[in-house]
Amino acid sequence: MKNLIASFGLALCATALLATSNAFAAGESNCQIIYGGGQVCSQSVKFTINKLVQNPGKGGEYVDNLTANDNKYTAGKTVSFKIIVTNTGSTTLTNLSVVDTFPQHINFSAGAGSYDAGNKKLSFTIPSLAAGKSQEFVISGKVVDEGNLPSNTGITCVTNTVRAVDNSGATAEDASQVCIQKN
């Protein structure tokens, strides 16, 4: 009986390992954070994406995140985000799909692509990105009116996320936090 249970356990482990191996072979991503910002998924990924937010008190400087201890935006103000996509591979990337998801309390106001207000998603395609090159996109959102901010807190921090997918299904993601203070 012990041998039957041990054999069954080994078969389950082998099946789980095979399923995991097949998942990665089928293009499932294995994401890792990149020092300095950004995230890259799957070892076959040949691009990175970096999401930045403009610091409202630093004369236009873009940073990875703004915390509750940093400068804050207020109701009705425009927030600018920068997306930087870099081809780290040795061949040209084509038709790279980018989707930026706006956070609660910030509404899209300007940027490349098409915006789906119901899902708060801005989508665009990078037709071609040469090896070793980067492309930057600036998008803007507007903080909602004060009456639409949470009534139980003076400072609310939200996260804006972006994801890119190439033709093979490889992905890269990043996010940037911004904090909003009631007047």
Strand portion: over 45%
Biggest pleated sheet: 7 strands, antiparallel
Question: Which sequence of strands runs across the widest sheet?
Answer: 1-2-12-11-6-9-8
Query: Gyration radius, to the nearest Å?
Result: 21 Å
What general form does the structure show? elongated
Low-confidence stretches: 1-30
Instruction: Quickly give the structural class.
Output: mainly beta
Order of helices and strands: HEEEEEEEEEEEE
Number of DSSP E strands:
12
Helix percent reads: 10-25%
Mean pLDDT rating: 80
Number of helices: 1
What is the terminal separation in angstroms? 72 Å
What does this 3D model show about the protein?
The chain has 1 helix and 12 strands. The chain is mostly beta strands and 183 residues long. The chain has a 7-stranded antiparallel sheet with strand order 1-2-12-11-6-9-8, with no helix packed on it. Strands 4-3-5-10-7 form a 5-stranded antiparallel sheet, with no helix packed on it. A hairpin with a 5-residue loop joins β1 (31-33) and β2 (39-41). The longest helix has 24 residues, at 2-25.
